[in-house]
Amino acid sequence: MSDFFNEGWSAYIGTATVLGLIACIVLLFVAARTKPMSGDNTTGHVWDEDLTELNNPLPRWWMWLFILTVVFAGVYLGLYPGLGSLAGRLGWTSTAQYEQEKQQARATAAPVYASFAPLTFEALAHDPRAMAVGERLFANNCAGCHGSDAKGSKGFPNLTDTDWLYGGTPEKIIESITLGRQGSMPPMAAAVGNADDVRDLANYVLSLSGSEENKTRAEYGRSKFAACAACHGAKGTGNQLIGAPNLTDDIWLHGWGVPAVTAMINNGKHSVMPAHGERLSTEQIRVLAAYVWGLSNHGDTTASAAR
Questions:
Q1: Each residue's pLDDT tens digit, 229-247
Q2: Which co-factors does it depend on (predicted)?
Q3: 3-state class of 60 per DSSP?
């Protein structure tokens, strides 16, 4: 796809656009000068014995409207970008307009966020006005992955419980929103052994939360867990510094059961949460983080107050 944006493609698009406009004028000129194919102002085509195709000239209003449309297109392409990489005489870009409108929106909302600045994080999470704003920010920026109720789905964390991959403190939530997260588990099958060893390990992992499928296999898999302990800890309680999940809490982000755990061991997983630091202001991120923090720290109280 990178080839699409080189100078050759730009010249191709610009040339094709100009030739298209010229072709419209030529087509109109040729059609206006076309002579009848017979002497009675018809094209000579007859259907159903008496339906004759006439060669009447185009209405003048239609012809001039067509010409004005082509002229307007030429003027527009001279003023605005449209001919390949040419910027146009006005220098307008959709990116610049977006940034301008974003700055205007932030300036308009600045007094609202200024009123939230003196509040502590906990007080902010209990403020009905702040949480109403946080709910809107969540709906616009987070609900697409975590759901409108913030309870997530397979592969997308539930934000209403107390199970945090990278930590649930205000500072960590702000960090996650601002910088995003890159979660990666490498395929571990080669380090574990053969297919039976992987299945034994899967049973042992499930046993850590009291949900083993096969106790005998789980016992065989205990020694194989050494390959996982570097990230998940010797007891499987996880490591929030690197986003390694707690395997003892019976919360399964990517699916539960021997087949799901076996697939994770064999294939690994790479997950991405996009960074919002450039999309949202510092004040917006603070309010959004307070809303997310409130979802798991005082249940529905914050949401009810916001409503």
A1: 999 999 999 999 999 999 9
A2: heme c
A3: helix
